[in-house]
């Protein structure tokens, strides 16, 4: 069974449990958890995920749940439907039920201070998962990918796709000019600014020297951010950009911070008459199946593969360390200042996927099957 097939099965199962939790029953019922600190009982880990619309969160949830279960822990897993009050309520319920550790992938990293205060009062350690929790001292550890470097990889990939850099990252001397537009992530996701800043650190010099031209003039994060990482919003914005700036010119590149945004832009451009012969170089992130299919076909140039299996393993190992009275492994103590403290972190590395290495990175590794990529859907 492929990773994504398992993710879909697990996500469907936990969705039913999440509905029960919203009515006050929780994922395992009242007998599923025991008070924190009761060493005679099975430890329980609360896992709060932001939503399950994007494939990546289904995969993350399934991998974390599977790893914790195999390690002998019970799991209270909830999806919040990208609704902040729902996630707050779910975490409140986990704390009341007495989970022993919380793993939280936040919707809005600044919205959980009250919940984390309650967790600290109950001596429940908190692991921020992939998205930094800000504005509180009560986050013990952060496990994520090197998000600034993800942005660097996206920006570099755009430049390579346009022929400005070669495969080694060296400048080719190509002067363009190339018309590009920028689609950043959600302003309430702390990671979105890391992706944006990383990408712009690579791209901005070429905007400054005229090799790249942003005809809309929209380059500041506030101008290019996309609330909720919403594909439909990205498509609508691209529609507007085509109308306002590209009636007589072509867009040559789209710096998109994730696959959903990239697909939104591509769908808009397809509607505007772009074909495989003139579709821009489009970046992405998360290696979603729909986008890997388009990379294979030539509609999307690249995506960033953040192997959720590795992230889940690190989160599970961190939870185990805390449950056993130890400390998680740390490889970064400087980068992630949440406004109150620098959160000890473990940063994982990501990979750039193009049509040249798609099979090696995604199929040979067992993350997808070739038939899943060909169809763009899970088996």
TrEMBL record:
Coiled coil feature spans: none
Main location: other
Residues in Periplasmic binding protein domain copies: 45-326
Record keywords, A-Z: Signal, Sugar transport, Transport
Cell compartments where the protein resides: Cell envelope
GO cellular component, one term: outer membrane-bounded periplasmic space
Signal peptide as annotated in the record: 1-23
GO MF annotation, one: carbohydrate binding
InterPro entries hit by this protein: Bact_Solute-Bind_Prot2, ChvE-like, Peripla_BP_I, SBP_2_dom
NCBIfam families per the UniProt record, alphabetical: ChvE
PANTHER family: D-XYLOSE-BINDING PERIPLASMIC PROTEIN
Protein name as it appears in the record: Multiple sugar transport system (Multiple sugar-binding protein)
Species this chain originates from: Jonesia denitrificans (strain ATCC 14870 / DSM 20603 / BCRC 15368 / CIP 55.134 / JCM 11481 / NBRC 15587 / NCTC 10816 / Prevot 55134) (Listeria denitrificans)
